[in-house]
Amino acid sequence: MAPPVRYTQGRPAPVSFERLCGTCSRLFATSAALQRHRLSMHDSTKPPPARCGEVSANQRPPARSAPPLVPLVIGGGPCVSPLSRPSADGLRRPGGLPIFSVGRGPTSGPPSVRRGRPSANGVSSTGVDLSDESDGRAGVSRSADSSAARSSVTIPRSWSGHDGGGRVGHHDGGGHVGTAGSYGAFDDTADRPDVPVVGVRGSRWFEPQPGVPLPVRPRPLVGLPAARILAYYRAKGDMERTQPYVARDAARKPSKFNTPTLRKFRLFALSTGRCGLSNTARAEYWESVVAAEVAAVAGTGKLGPMQSAFDTAAKFVSSLKHEQDRFLHELRWRQTAIIIGEQTFTFYSRDLWEVAIDAILSAQQLTLFGQRRVRTDGSIIRTGTMDSDLFIAEQASVFQIHKLTPSDRVFVMAAQLYSDAALISWSGAHYIYAIRARLPNVQKGKSEWITVAYIPLVRSRHGAGSIEKERLRLLRNELLQRCMAVLLDQFAELSETGKTVNIPGRGTYLVIPRITLYAADMPEERHLQGLKIGLCHRPCSLCMIRKEECGEPRHNNEPAPDLRCVTETLTVQLEAASLYDANTGAGRRQQISDDFSATHNVPSLGAVHGLSTGCKNLYRIFGFDSLHVWKLGILRNLGGLVGNLVESLAKGGNSLFGTAENALIGINERLLHMSRRVRADLYPPGYLVPSGVTQPTLTGSDWRYAVMHFPGMVAGAVGRRPDESSAPFAGKLRRSPYGSRSFQEEERRARVVAQRLQNRKRKRSGRSPGGKNATRPRAGQWRKADESHSSAGDAESVNHRWATTDDEDVVPPADRSGVDSKAFADLFPAMSPADAVLEVMCRAAALSGKLSGDNRVEQAHQTEEEATAIASDAAEFISRYVAILFGPLHTPKAHRLASHLLAELLDRGNLTEADTSINEGLHGRCKAMYDRSNKHVSTFTAQMMRSEQTLACVLAEAATERREDVERGRALLDAAAAEFVAPGPFTEVAVDADVSVPEGREALSDDSGTSDENSVARGAALGAERAATGARHGGGGRRRSLSALRVRGSRSTVAELSTMNGGALAGLGEAVGADDDQMVYVANSLSFLATFEWGASSVQQRLYAARSNHGKPFYDFFRFTDDSSATGCSYGRALLAINGINGVARRGVVVQRLALAEKDPKCVRTRFGGTQLRWEVDETTSFPTLSFVPLDNVQRLELVEPDFASLCARHSLFATPSNTPNTVEERALQRWFVNNFYSWTSAKLKEL
């Protein structure tokens, strides 16, 4: 029976995951390798081998001496390679990392250990000799508050695996059992008297004494994956080649910009255009300022601020360069020469630990501890990192190790990282590869991403073949891990021991750093983890599912795939790395690649404790990136699946209302007629196209805003046409760029012909086509100018730089649909394919809103029940609805959404922190700075680093000065208000202002209600000065002279307006209560404060009622309060925006009223919360009823779409409200749908 688990002051020790063959005494890293060995080399009917470290007498291996570990850990001498190991004949031969098997027990270790004597080769992971009798504090030195400093002994013990019975623990994600505070395994030798203690008075047997606590083991111990990985990368010598980017002597000079005026000159020169002025422009700027100063002080004999500080333009330009050096020196930027083979790369970085500590010490408000938040009903709520499951568990693990008494002051400093590359040149030759960090403990309002490193560029040769591309891929992978190791070196070391830091206002704390999030897209995630991307058997980073099982529906009794084991994967990666460095073991490396989909690149993140030890969160820290997983992964595939399904259903026949190609054209053209409020970019050929149609590059925001309209686009347009159908049919091919394969083929032929003509002209003239002013066509040349609503920079990362075959986003072929299967009939009972497609699109739109946090309270707390419901909807959507209707999606993104969404919601508390959209938007700043560089491959990265860091520093200093100005202005205003009492409110009020304001406060607010700090400071100071001046002169202060009451807008009589819009305004006089000869002041739009029924904050919206806006009519639908309605609100379409009538201010909207339509129980959109509307027709005019709605009664805008299903059933596939006859019968039959999926408010990044 296995001995019970005993904790040494709450600290179980690590385990060596070596498997021992009981027959031949060979050691194996994994159980799978041992199983293969036993099946191939020995009789498979033999009993299972004994546990590692507990072999029986007849299976005892011969005594061996432990391999020396000092060269590996401390780098060795000049003649000893850290990647060599002793052979059987005693000579050192090239090899990989030695097997960490020191102290496996009295029966398997060296003879010295079995006899109770200290081993000659016993060292800690820092190289300290464990056999030193003079100093019992063998191991790593820690801070004063560290628990290891209180220990006087170092105890190497024999480690055992997880296959003992009757032990309680938790799984680390791959079958290995550990405790919440352990480093991944149990130490079952604490109660065994036969284990010797080394380093205490020579050698003796350890005998636990009653009342005496067991000695504390130091960290790290030999064999921990974190210590092995840290030693592996330190042996590369990169840290020895790291030096400051700016020499200390170059930054010692004080700044010459020592006055507020000079700092404003500096701010303008270094921040204009987001990248600063060029050197030539800086000199010209000096000349302009000096010329203005000379003219201003002419005849006085004085010098201006610029001329007195810098007498020449060269000194001004040189001082600006010195400012850049000074900022970079203060930020402690470093440069590292990373040598790989015969190539040397320069890596620019900051120390992540120093960046985090600087942020902690300079923070105005801190949150040191994470706390579980529970409602009164007992439900757990999560909002962000500090109350998420991952941080709470990590904090408990740290406290169990480092907080030995309640009085110990320890806290976990969480760090979040992001890395990705972005193209910055039109040619695609240059990209910027930045690493950014964020600290959830620091509260500064909204969280800020700080750039901490720039990974160097690796260029490929033009026309490189497959061998060269493979070499570049391996080179880039190794360079990425080496750069991360340099960035995390001190952070990883202190993550094990911690460091004492004196925090202002709080006292001294032992700070334990941990990484809680790494925001990256999926290719970047796999590279950082050292896993394969394409053509691998196990594409998921979290579990061991096979690629062909991704996206497949799972039965109720089918077990979930095993989670990926952190320790086992890192162990085999270290083995593969040692074999690769020794240029041997190709078969074993291929075996590791097949079993684990792992490469020989050891993830440098594994050197950080808490990722490879303790809670083992190495794979959990990579969050759910909704940009690349949902928007650019699932939704993009969904568009191709719909297009394939349309063509598949039309084989051997036609679609419901036309041919397959016409059906796709009609579906994509519907987006043009939805509303002017559509925020998706209208690129041809559209979003729902088959696999063969080429699409332009659409950003994540394009797909996110387009999915809201997918239900209206596909309604009634997908399906097979019955033979006896009499519905309208579009048989003639429509010439349109939207969804048309034929149109693209014609365009391709035209481009080929045009290119041939240009080539002929080039041969004759010898000049490039188009001449000097030739421009390249934009990707969005088909997009209309008035519908530019996309957010730039959403998905501009470059992933092709890895030159890998990534087949994860390939759309399945069109013949995998299950429309005719029994599963389809069970999932969609008595439903046609058109209704089934509509239901799937409604589910996609609803799920997208839940993932983005649309139309809910901002920063709303999410309960575990809500998270479970969202994850269940996502799993059903992928595994059932998409898999049955379109065929299963065998992609890792679909699997991540279906299987691991709940874990992400519990570990993170939200889906916004791991979203890479925010960092993708920061790439635009890098592109602006690239234009200012010389674009040379060896220097542009350093130039961009200097510009970006300088810009951040000068903006931070300017913000500090503005805050100080605001505080001084408010102090002056408060002092003046204490001496002077302002008069009462003004009596004259302008129409476009609710209240009048005293002078000095005129610039405090704009039309949207926002404030500017500069305006606050200037207005407060000016108002205080004028108030004080009025008090000194005994006056009551000067009032603002207001003109007479004015009403703005174009003037027309009621009779003239009644004849517009084809007679739709015939009842205008009765609606507004005015005679035909009275004058109405009409505006194109009105601004109002929108309120949302779901409790979100009010925002400023603008309601349009314009006959022509950018050449097209713009009539908004909106929601308003209505006492006559049973629900208290009604819907309508604005026809007139009125500011006043007959010179009297009367702001409101003339609206065409909409009423609720009769509910259809079979309507799919109604079941998903949609509201169907119809016109409320006035019997006297036969047009929709008109009403006047005061602006105060307007609640918010509403997106109302035509019911295209009924519209095309009555007319044709391409019928729209604009091309159908405006008759009384048509108005009575016309139906509308309120798009309840439209995003009016979205979740924002939680303020930290």
TrEMBL record:
Record keywords: Metal-binding, Zinc, Zinc-finger
C2H2-type domain boundaries: 19-47
Coiled-coil residue spans: none
The keyword Zinc is annotated on this UniProt entry: yes
Signal sequence extent: none
InterPro entries xrefs: Plavaka (IPR041078), Znf_C2H2_type (IPR013087)
Biased composition (Low complexity): 137-153
Region Disordered, annotated ranges: 38-70, 84-188, 719-816
Pfam families per UniProt: Plavaka
GO function term, MF aspect, one: zinc ion binding
Protein name in the entry: C2H2-type domain-containing protein
Source organism per UniProt: Porphyra umbilicalis
